[in-house]
Design a protein that fits this description.
The structure is a homodimer of 335-residue chains.
Chain A (H helix, E strand, L loop, with lengths): L2 E3 L3 E3 L4 E10 L1 H4 L9 E2 L10 H19 L9 E6 L5 H7 L5 E4 L6 H14 L5 E8 L1 H8 L15 E2 L2 E9 L5 E6 L14 H20 L8 E5 L2 H14 L7 E3 H4 L3 H4 L5 E2 L1 H17 L5 E9 L3 H5 L6 E9 L2
Parallel strand pairs in A: 3-4, 5-6, 5-7, 8-13, 11-12, 11-14
Antiparallel strand pairs in A: 1-2, 2-10, 3-9, 7-9, 10-15, 14-15
Chain lengths: 335, 335
């Protein structure tokens, strides 16, 4: 049974461990600075399928099956899959779950999905309603561009504040265990909107949500940012990251240990991604490769993973609405 | 801490009660057989707003605020809102949550959303991660028709198997308490797809998911369908309801106590809704009016609420995909 602290945070009382994890990415992500950290990549942007949507389903399927296989789990060893993605009606996740002998919970948290699915998986195990649960998400550059912006064939010029949707998927299996990185605490974010309308500047829209959730976590747990080895946001990119640090400094919080999954995944000098990576698959694939590996091998000991999501739709933006955002935070400790 | 039974079900060990609930509907729903059971209705399909999407946000907002007000709760008395809807990127829920001082979890379960948000709210309270949580959803005939089928101005003829998306919203506040209807058990569904492709016959696509979840619940809890006063599905309509009963009878389950929220909400003779009502707002508004009232006033004592969702998108259907479906089930007992 969890221990609720403050308004938005709970500590785990069980030893909820990262039993297994896997990442799958596309060609561009493999060519980036974390290229050799990912489990699988494909040079084919269709991943052998006929459509970009089916490619995304294929990536999620590969991530799930690999996470199971790594620890010799079968489907029946997991009680529930929590998954979501950016596609309308979350079809990437729904079709991945189809026919599997596992309960399925669909979520929508935009690019915060990896932290959201981890939060709910943790909650279900803390409630003793599941022995093991799986947190999954994905995004695909081509399916996202078509849906949120323009078909690629149109050749729209992207402004410098825009981010590049990561083609990638991540899957984490949580369950009770001793010898693995553990989920120590979870903070569920509030929906924040400071009035940004520009769909090509998501970092600016999401930074206030990241600041709000990090402040809520520190306040609820009565800890300092320097108590943690590293704070990973995802995916603010360079524009959003600068804004986040400005916002935190107003409250006297000056993290020297901040990095952003959208900045980490690409080489901005060489890869023409403008402000950095984005998409549910961005923080998911970085968490399920470098971050969790470093928690396993002792390079990291106590981190905050704070994934951010912009909660608009193309319809709401066309109707003149501003962009509400959210960030959920997980405190993970090394073994 | 919950007690997990079987593969998909858990019993609550806390007294998790329905502390408050509220429903908001449109004109057609108010003219139906349950008209006088809903808390609020509007003759204006825009609910005073400029767009159908904003009308949906208005309905969710009214349902939340009314559920709080009925029991003199303030926003700070609730720790988390779980909400979802049918709109792309779930903007009905995201914009409703904007600026509220409450953690927010977005879900996507199509028309199963009321049962899904109740399941997760229950789980969070069982985990002691929240004292009170709120489950919310909505749908709107006009925003749904435009998004999933055709703009209304096109005047497409609807086949007899099609259902009419309910304009409605429901909100439930759960928390520990004694004198109210209680959540006794929860079964989270699997994603089932028996190959139906017709977006105008959702009942047929969803019936196998309802049958699967009801069978899982009975098997996990080792109970019989006759142990319950009533089984409410939502929203199979008449076509899906007949198929559900056929599927259950194959396993020797013959419920004499079944009703469907999509059948209950409209008068099919007079209201030209073909196979019945549908949409997240259908089972939500029926639960948050007649069903929970009858559990409060003693007419019902022990029921199953099994909300069903069809998990396709217009894109997946255009790409030739079949329709995966899901159903989540809540066992609620009277006070």
């Amino acid at each position: 049974m969890a221990k609720k602290v403050g308004r938005q945070t709970f500590y785990c009382e069980k030893d909820i461990s990262v039993l297994s994890f896997a990442s799958v990415v596309g060609k561009k992500e493999h060519e980036g600075p974390l290229g050799d950290k990912f489990d699988v990549y494909s040079d084919d942007e269709f991943f052998g399928e006929e459509t970009f949507e089916k490619a995304e389903i294929r990536m999620q399927t590969m991530a799930i099956d690999l996470a199971l296989k790594k620890e010799s789990f079968e489907e029946k060893d997991v009680d529930c899959i929590f998954a979501g993605d950016l596609l309308n009606q979350c079809v990437g996740s729904n079709y991945t779950a189809r026919g599997r002998d596992v309960s399925f919970v669909g979520v929508y948290g935009a690019c915060s999905t990896m932290a959201l699915t981890l939060s709910l998986s943790t909650m279900m195990i803390e409630a003793s309603a599941a022995k093991r649960a799986m947190a999954v998400t994905s995004s695909h550059f081509c399916s996202s561009e078509r849906q949120f912006r323009f078909p690629l064939e149109y050749g729209g010029v992207r402004p410098q504040t825009s981010q590049w949707t990561v083609t990638g998927a991540g899957a984490v299996i949580l369950g009770e265990g001793e010898e693995k990185p553990k989920i120590k605490a979870v903070t569920l974010g509030r929906t924040i909107d400071l009035g940004v309308k520009d769909m090509n500047n998501m970092g600016a829209a999401m930074a206030p949500a990241a600041a709000d959730t990090i402040k809520a976590f520190l306040s609820d747990t009565k800890t300092k940012i320097s108590d943690y080895d590293a704070v990973f946001t995802g995916d603010l990119g360079v524009v959003g990251s600068e804004l986040l640090l400005e916002l935190l400094q107003k409250d006297g919080i000056a993290p020297s240990n901040h990095n952003d999954c959208g900045v980490m995944i690409f080489d901005r000098e060489k890869q023409d991604v403008h402000a950095g990576g984005s998409g549910c698959g961005c923080s998911a694939s970085v968490l399920c490769s470098k971050i969790l590996s470093d928690l396993e091998n002792g390079k990291l000991k106590n981190i905050l993973f704070c994934a951010t999501g912009a909660l608009m739709s193309p319809t709401s933006s066309l109707q003149g609405e501003t962009i509400p955002s959210i960030a959920h935070l997980i405190n993970i400790v090394g073994k």
